[in-house]
């Protein structure tokens, strides 16, 4: 099974700044995803991180706000840009392997 | 569009009692359904998927196409079952590899 490491695990950020979350998988995976889990709500898919090409964003999420990199088959980053308090959330990295989705422990962001 | 409904946000049962976490879905075609669990201070992890027909940690879930349900059941709840449970299914479009999650049910097993 894939083991996914995310960092930072948590951070407190100022309004207007940007933060990059890193996601490392211990094996090569084709599919990586970024989810958001706002307080008291379920997981919402932000985008699919495609290796070697631009990420595929879900409705309501745009590249300017959530730029994603996927330089290889084991690593991805998600940047939350120009943050506002509404961006306070847990951001989860996920990878698909053998038909199963594996998740990182999440990055809890609080925007003041 | 795909939809997963978990009607109970919170569910409390006594240890040793049966437990059922409800999940209803709307989907065109034959869905592949999953239950994910998140224990306190742990990451989200797969509990079971309907195509495998396995029983994991005593939990089972049967796909009922007539009722469009995939309820999670366990005959005798244990304290360690206290966790957040999510029902999930792939999006409607073919070829997608991500999952759409329900709102989750927090199960508390009372000693």
Structure description:
The complex is a heterodimer of chains A (112) and B (111). By secondary structure, chain A is mainly beta. Chain A has a single domain (4-111), classed as Sandwich (Immunoglobulin-like). Chain A has strands at residues 4-7, 10-13, 19-25, 31-37, 43-49, 56-57, 68-72, 75-80, 89-97, 100-103, 107-111. Chain B has 111 residues and is mostly beta strands. Helices cover 0% and strands 40% of the residues of chain B. In chain B, the strands form three sheets. In chain B, strands 2, 5, 6, 9, 10 and 11 form a six-stranded mixed beta sheet that branches. In chain B, strands 3-8-7 form a three-stranded antiparallel beta sheet, with no helix packed on it. In chain B, strands 1-4 form a two-stranded antiparallel ribbon. The radius of gyration of chain B is 14 Å and the shape is globular. The chains are: A mainly beta (112), B mainly beta (111). Chain A binds chain B through residues 4, 31, 33, 41-43, 45, 48, 92, 94, 96, 99-106, and chain B through 36, 42-46, 49, 86, 97-104.
What is the CATH T-level topology of chain B?
A: Immunoglobulin-like
| Fourth-tier CATH superfamily name of chain A | Immunoglobulins
What Rg of chain B, in angstroms, do the CA atoms define? 14 Å
Total number of beta strands of chain B: 11
The CATH class designation of chain A is Mainly Beta
Annotation field: number of helices of chain B: 0
Bulk shape of chain A: globular
Give unreliable regions of chain A as ranges: none
Beta-strand residue fraction of chain B: 35-45%
Element-by-element helix/strand order of chain A: EEEEEEEEEEE
According to DSSP, the number of beta strands of chain A is 11
Task: State the fourth-level CATH superfamily of chain B.
Answer: Immunoglobulins
| Domain unit count of chain A | 1
Oligomeric state, counting identical vs distinct chains: heterodimer
CATH architecture of chain B: Sandwich
What proportion of the residues of chain A is helical, as a percent range?
under 10%
Task: Summarize model confidence as the mean pLDDT of chain B.
Answer: 89
């Amino acid at each position: 099974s894939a083991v996914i490491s995310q960092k930072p695990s948590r951070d407190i950020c100022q309004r207007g700044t940007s933060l990059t979350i890193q996601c490392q998988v211990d094996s090569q995976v084709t599919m990586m995803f970024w989810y958001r889990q706002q307080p008291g709500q379920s997981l919402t898919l932000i985008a699919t991180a495609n290796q070697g090409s631009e990420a595929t964003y879900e409705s309501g999420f745009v590249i300017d706000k959530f730029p994603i990199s996927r330089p290889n088959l084991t690593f991805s980053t998600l940047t939350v840009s120009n943050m506002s308090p509404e961006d306070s959330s847990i951001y989860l990295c996920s990878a698909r392997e053998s038909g199963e989705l594996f998740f990182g422990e999440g990055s809890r962001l609080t925007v003041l | 569009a795909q939809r997963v409904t978990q009607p109970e946000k919170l569910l409390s049962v006594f240890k040793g009692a049966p437990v059922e976490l409800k999940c209803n879905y709307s989907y065109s075609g034959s869905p592949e359904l999953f239950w994910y669990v998140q224990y306190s201070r742990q990451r989200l992890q797969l509990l079971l998927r309907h195509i495998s027909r396995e029983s994991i940690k005593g939990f089972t879930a049967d796909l009922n196409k007539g009722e469009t349900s995939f309820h999670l059941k366990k005959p005798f709840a244990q304290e360690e079952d206290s966790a957040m449970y999510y029902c999930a299914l792939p999006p409607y479009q073919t070829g997608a590899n991500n999952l759409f999650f329900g709102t989750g049910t927090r199960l508390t097993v009372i000693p």
